[in-house]
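Re: the 404-residue chain
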Amino acid sequence: MSQRMPSAPQPVDAGMAANTYLPASVSRSDPASFASTFAAARTFAERGWPNISSRLLLEARLTQWSALPTRRMRTRSLGAEVPGAYVVATKRGLYRVAGGEIELLSQGQFYGVAKTGRQLLAFRMGLRAGAVWAVDPHPWRGWRAVSTVVRHLSRGVHQIDLGTGGLYLCDTYNNALRVFSTVNPEYGRAVFPRGRLDHGRGSENYAHLNSVYVTPSRIYLVCHNESAKTGRPSELLVLDHHFALVDRRPFNGRSVHNVVPTANGLLYCDSLGGRVMLDDRPIYEPGWFTRGLSLSEEYLVVGGSDYAGRDERVTGAGFLAVLDRKTLAVRTEIRFPAMVQEIRRLDGIDLAASEGWFTAASCRVGSSEPVDVSEPVFPQTRGEYAPRGGPAPHPSRLAQGQPA
């Protein structure tokens, strides 16, 4: 069925534009045929469709990435049962894992994933630039990209998260934390907690900021510090919501990813050490490069991959492990078809994302104590945040532009 392009300027799904409006001679799967992209762009400009610009088509050519499919792709068995439903971002695609099945939602290089209601926000990396896409479930077409939320981003964005202040992005290659309004994503600001870079990633102050967790009182940031190159341990930065530095301390780990403040300590991945840590104590040591956490009241899900050089990361294999949150007993360990970069739970609140801060505040990892949300005070900020008039608004309300 043909689609009608709106006349008013609106964010355009570059992949869907390429799928729908490119002439038959321009194949999105054949790189050589994309040489005619510029001629196609001129054609669209002559037809008065400014939204399909040469910039969007050039991005489609460079990334060679099609939009999320309008029909479900074939699923296959994982060979083991994974409790719950999850979205997994990898170097080779965006996957949905539920039960014992895995479904490829889209090919491409993905990293950060955040949730707002039933919608997903996913960072997709192109060859020259990156963008955050809004991805919606469809009753019979499957998950599909419906719009570009933020475009013209660095390729180096890592974790993204929705907090009470907006959409937070770790602009890793630029040493920055970027915050965008969820009502109007055209407006945003960049913060440089470790300073701007004078010589790119070769600068002495390059920290490789890769993970963020937002509470109503604090912003937690992980400085990876490229431990394998520099020999320095990773660090935790704690900011207030005016982006002033409140605390800075080293992790007991190298090339750390993810950070989750819980009632009994900070949960994070000591990636280079092949461990998952709770403060200074290892709680899971699989031996592979740990990266990606999902935490619920029942389970801790850990992602990871083989140790690989940068040129081998697209083809490298990954892992998923499911641990009991109370006992830390391993329920499932499975091989994954790509290097895992991020995990988010789909069928409930994920305490490893900022949406779950209220429950994570009283969730004890490795403890059978029940989760109690009556006193949402983090041990790291005790006395600095006292809830008034109930909890902070849920990020999904903010993302929908609803009043707090």
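The chain has two domains: 14-63, 75-360.
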